[in-house]
Amino acid sequence: xxxxxxxxxxxxxxxxxxxxxxxxxxxxxxxxxxxxxxxxxxxxxxxxxxxxxxxxxxxxxxxxxxxxxxxxxxxxxxxxxxxxxxxxxxxxxxxxxxxxxxxxxxxxxxxxxxxxxxxxxxxxxxxxxxxxxxxxxxxxxxxxxxxxxxxxxxxxxxxxxxxxxxxx
Length: 168
Description:
168 residues, 5-stranded mixed sheet
C-alpha cells in the first residue's frame, strides 16, 4: 500500500479508537480497496468491523437492502444509492460509522450525465442521516479508484473528529 493511504488509515484508526467506534465499508467501484487499506493497518481489528463488496446491483439489494426502485430511478452511481448503502452497512454490521462508494472508474461505462471518473461517496454514523457527495476524479481506472479510497478515508477521519478535510 502506498504511504498516503497507509497514513490516512492510521489516522482514521486513531480517530475511531478515541471514540471507541467501529467502521464498516460498502464498496462498489473500489472493490474492497477501502477494506484492504484499513486492514493493512496493524491493530485495525480494534476499529474495523466488516466490509461489503457489492459490485452488482443484486449484491447491493441483497447485502445492503438498497431498494430496486432507487437503482431503477437513480442508478447505481447516485447519491440516493450510496445513501442507502451507508444505511445498509450500518444495519448489517456492528459498526458505529460506515462509508459507501459507487462510481464509474472507466475506461468505459461513462455517459454524458455520469462520465468516467464520476464517483458518489456516502458516509455516516448510526442514528444520523448520511452525508453524500458526487465527485469527478481524473486519470485511469486505478487513479480514479485510488482517489476514491483516499477521499473516503479523509471523510471518515473528519467524521470521527480527526484532522481530515471538513465535512461538506
